[in-house]
Amino acid sequence: MPKRLRWRSAWLTVLLLLAACGTDSGSIQPGIGAPLPTVALTGLTDETPTSTDALRGAPLVITFWATWCHPCRREMPGFERLSNRLAAHGVRVIGVTVDHDLNLAREFVRGHKLTFPIYVDGDRKALQSGLRVVALPETVLVSAEGRIVARILGERDWDGAEGDKLLDRAFNLRLAPGH
Length: 179
Prior knowledge:
- The chain is of the alpha/beta class.
- The protein has a single domain, classed as Glutaredoxin.
- It is built from five helices and seven strands.
- The protein has a seven-stranded mixed beta sheet with strand order 2-1-5-4-3-6-7.
- A hairpin with a 5-residue loop joins β1 and β2.
């Protein structure tokens, strides 16, 4: 293929990809201030049912994760420590697995001795869809009133200054340096 034709082909591909991104309002994530969608959730290990409405009343850190997501796997022990640390501040930490194989998720939770609540989003992935979570890991910070105060895409160090800064800004916690 001549060089000029390859360049044209490459530019056409780029243009088609950009057009595919488009401005479909159906793919826009609920932003800051939007309410957390009301959906039913089931506990991963004990299958206890709950709903996002039942989680209101305290600030909430929700992490969406899966066992096949390597950054998620690295981040989960930090969420365990974060859960223990934030309990004194009245902030709850929960996980929402998007795994299809729930036995793998249960084995991961047991193997890493995770004690914070982890839920299954169900077959229809109602919470994941309602929040339009498209990449993992994603963390959503929710106020006690059930409003989204921050969305964090990608792996973070929840044990360090970066995590503290995000939480301080979102929940006005004033976490002490060094925890």
